[in-house]
Amino acid sequence: MPLYKTITVNPRIKLYIWKVTESEKELSLNINLTNPCQQRMDGMKSELHRRAFLSIRHLMGLAGYVDQDLFYDQAGKPHLKDGKHISITHSYQFTGIIISQDDEVGIDIEKQRDKIAIIGHKFTPMEDYAGIVSPIELVKKLTIIWGAKESLYKIYATHGLSFMNHIYIHDFKKTDSSTTGLIKYQGSLTNYSISFLEFEGFTCVYAIKK
Predict the structure, then answer these.
(1) What pLDDT, in 10s, does the model give residues 158-201?
(2) What is the reported pLDDT for 49?
(3) Please, which of 13, 75, 124, 147 could form a disulfide with 205 given CB 3.0 to 4.6 Å?
(4) How is the chain classified by DSSP, letter by letter?
C-alpha cells in the first residue's frame, strides 16, 4: 500500500498523498463504488486514470471514509456526507486528498513541465517573473502559482471564475513553503492561506479558506 505522504496541517486538517504503483485489479480489491462512480470510472479510457480513481478511494479509507460517503454538487465539487470538507487531486502517478473538519480546503498536484512556461500568460502576468533567469526555477514557480490558483478555484467552485482576472497569489521567495491568495469576484473578496511542497518532479499545493 504505497501511501506516499501524510501531512497533519493542524489537528483538524489532514492531507494524504498516494503513489500509484499497483495494477487496476489490485486497487479494486475491497473497494465498493456507488453506481454513479462506477459509471464514471467505466467511462475512463485511460488505465492510469482508473487506477488513480481507485487509489483515491484507498486514501479515503485511510481517513475513515468509503465511496458512499462522497457526493458531488452541481458544480462538480466533492463533499462528505458528514459535513466535513474534502478536496481531491491526481496527476500521473500521484493522487491526493485533503480533509478538514471546519475550514474549506483545496488541493492540487501538478507535474513540473516545461509547457507551463509557454501557457503561463494565460493564468498569470508573465512580466512579474522577468527576473527569473533559470528555466527550471521558472517552471517550478509557475507550477506553484497554477496549483495555488487551481486549489482556490476548487474551493470557490463557481462558473465564470477566471484564473487571470479573479484569483490572485501573493508573491513568494524560492525558499518559502507558503503564501496567501485571494479571490475577487462579483463584489466579494475571500482570503486563503496557501502551502506547497515538491517531490519527484511534482508540486503539491493546498489552500485553506480563512
Answers:
(1) 999 999 999 999 999 999 999 999 999 999 999 999 999 999 99
(2) 95
(3) 147
(4) --EEEEEEEETTEEEEEEE--S-HHHHHTT----HHHHHHHHT---HHHHHHHHHHHHHHHHTT--GGGEEE-TT--EEETTS-EEEEEEETTEEEEEEESSS-EEEEEEE--THHHHHGGGTS-GGGGTT---HHHHHHHHHHHHHHHHHHHHHH--TT--HHHHEEE----TT-SEEEEEEEETTEEEEEEEEEEEETTEEEEEEEE-
Residue 160: CATH number of its domain: 3.90.470.20
Contact 207, 191 (CB under 8 A): no
